[in-house]
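stuck on this chain:
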Amino acid sequence: MPVLQMRDAAFAQAGRLLAGRISLEIDDGQRVARSFASGREAAIVALMASGGVKATSGSVFIDGFDPKIQPTQCKRLAGYVSHELLPLEFASFERYIEYRAALWNLDSDRALGHARHLLEHLEGVHESFAYPLVGALLADPMILVLDRPQAAYASRMLAVAGSRAIFSTHASDAEAAAWA
């Protein structure tokens, strides 16, 4: 069974198609990078793929679960890393990890130790990109969904992600090539 399956998935608002007609299947360990016409479309597709935004037509399944019916389960299975910068209230790495640990009901001391270990392998990656990746990996997701990640950090971020499935969205083919 695919880790992520999107069948003609689309998102519309006020009758206007903002992202869509996406069909893909991603199996365990597979890495897929797709470019889209705009950053907005790339962001919406990443949110649909992680269960953060529900498709208005078509379907999305994360390890067989439908985000429309089982959103919490889907969010546990799909680690989402936003393109947006980390909010200022989480400027402290420890505070951010405590927040993420509480979100997933993890022991905060163990989560912090694991997070520090992951962060060591992201040396040279700006904290605005490293912290959200580490936070997404704390829950040990089956698939990592990256919204417009920086190509300059691809090799280090992919190494930390390990062998899990990865789906990344991009606003250009050049950026997508670094993540394929």
Remarks:
- Strands lie at 4-13, 16-26, 31-35, 57-62, 78-81, 143-147, 165-170.
- The chain has one domain: 4-179.
- The mean pLDDT is 92.
